[in-house]
Design the sequence.
């Protein structure tokens, strides 16, 4: 294939999340999160795994930053653990919690790595969940207070701020089908959580802007939803329903269009949306400078009156059949279809012109192949499948740029193997292998490959 070059100043980096890598679950005044509780609930997480130790990044961050520098990363997206900053979710700020992120930020900047802060990556303080969690409007207000506290410590050095990571997961997987913390299964509660997450984003975005934040954004796991049969009207209706629940319920209010009428009608069949108050949509539409896009796989659906639906998409039963993934799959069972990324980026650019995009997560879980990689990769763990996955998706991103999409950067998921939520430690997304017993880090062949991509600014 011919060489491909990305735009000048394209941002190359990696991403992680606090609960997945930090460990130190009880250190320095950190309070419990919903994931501490959930992972200790029998049957919720594979083999009873928890994030108590994870990758011990809390104590090993300096070595991890040195590794990032060795790989040539230009940016590092990390999340702040709300329970470290406010152990109960409200009240006095814990200075020792902020001290850690202060040290991490300085270490990154000393190595020429731009810190990108995500304020919420699913680890809600348990005490807030005890008061209703994201189904409680007050949580949105507390989130804005927390956001201002973090900016107060890091805002003089951090340029880019992301409020929420994948509110679809927080709402639908946490409160809809219950496969993620806090493990609630209630469609009405899930929709209330959607709204309060968006409200929390809007309130936090305003607080950040008022404090002088330069770049404010949000990260969504928007989906490329496709019909089983492009010529089927029933399948087209299924696409619109799923697209409404996955994409438009977030994108439209965030960009000032308000909630889509068809989505509100669908929600009203399950719960009266009294949680939406006058003025809320204006608050949610606080201007953003960047939309983070997390992409892993497309979603194929068919419209069927006997469709099983999915609790993660409330109200799709007896209307939608979610097709099983086919073709090459990741170890998560997710379809590998890079063209879906191109389509998704083009759709976002067309629907929301003028809104810069960044791929804030993309990667694949694959079993490490054992032994060392090929010539020139001595000591590296072989993972050819991951290289092929990343290469295909970067080519898809480059294709979108060539078609006029304003794509500013790419952050691989993930820097390190880590605690993969309900899957525990059995699925590995990292470009760096982690031995969870010794905490030894070993770059995989994909890390060396990515290092080359960064140095060439292309493929």
Sequence:
């Amino acid at each position: 294939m011919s060489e491909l070059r990305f735009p000048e100043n394209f941002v190359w980096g990696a991403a992680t999340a606090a609960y997945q890598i930090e460990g130190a679950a009880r250190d320095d005044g950190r309070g419990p999160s919903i994931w501490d509780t959930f992972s200790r609930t029998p049957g919720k997480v594979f083999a009873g795994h928890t994030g108590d130790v994870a990758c011990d990044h809390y104590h090993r961050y300096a070595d991890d930053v040195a590794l990032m520098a060795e790989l040539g990363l230009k940016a590092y997206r990390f999340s702040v653990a709300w329970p470290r900053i406010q152990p109960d979710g409200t009240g006095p700020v814990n200075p020792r919690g902020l001290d850690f992120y202060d040290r991490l930020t300085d270490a990154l900047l000393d190595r020429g790595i731009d810190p990108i802060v995500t304020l919420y990556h699913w680890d809600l303080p348990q005490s807030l969940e005890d008061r209703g969690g994201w189904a409680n409007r007050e949580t949105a207000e507390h989130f804005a207070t927390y956001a201002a506290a973090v900016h107060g410590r890091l805002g003089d050095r951090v340029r880019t701020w992301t409020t929420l990571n994948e509110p679809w997961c927080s709402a639908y997987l946490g409160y809809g089908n219950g496969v993620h913390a806090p493990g609630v299964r209630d469609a009405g509660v899930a929709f209330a959580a959607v709204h309060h997450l968006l409200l929390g984003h809007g309130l936090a975005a305003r607080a950040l802007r008022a404090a002088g934040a330069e770049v404010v954004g949000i990260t969504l796991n928007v989906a490329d939803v496709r019909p089983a049969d492009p010529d089927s009207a029933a399948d087209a209706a299924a696409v619109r329903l799923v697209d409404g629940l996955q994409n438009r319920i977030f994108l439209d209010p965030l960009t000032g269009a308000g909630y889509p009428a068809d989505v509100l009608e669908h929600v009203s069949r399950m719960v009266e949306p009294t949680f939406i108050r006058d003025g809320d949509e204006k608050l949610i539409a606080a201007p953003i400078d960047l939309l983070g896009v997390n992409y892993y796989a497309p979603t194929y659906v068919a419209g069927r009156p006997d469709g099983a639906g999915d609790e993660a998409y409330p109200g799709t039963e007896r209307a939608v059949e979610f097709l099983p993934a086919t073709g090459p799959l990741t170890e998560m069972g997710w379809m590998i279809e890079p063209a879906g990324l191109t389509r998704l980026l083009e759709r976002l650019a067309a629907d929301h012109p003028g809104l810069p995009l960044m791929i804030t997560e993309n990667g694949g879980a694959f079993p490490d192949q054992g032994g060392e990689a090929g010539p020139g990769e001595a000591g590296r763990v072989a993972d050819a499948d991951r290289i092929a996955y990343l290469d295909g998706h970067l080519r898809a991103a480059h294709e979108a740029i060539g078609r006029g999409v304003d794509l500013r950067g790419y952050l691989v998921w993930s820097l390190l193997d880590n605690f993969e939520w309900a899957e525990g430690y059995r699925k590995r997304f990292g470009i760096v292998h982690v031995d969870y017993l010794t905490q030894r880090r070993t770059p995989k062949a994909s890390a060396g490959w990515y290092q080359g991509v960064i140095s060439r600014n292309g493929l």
About this structure: The chain is about 40% helix and 15% strand.
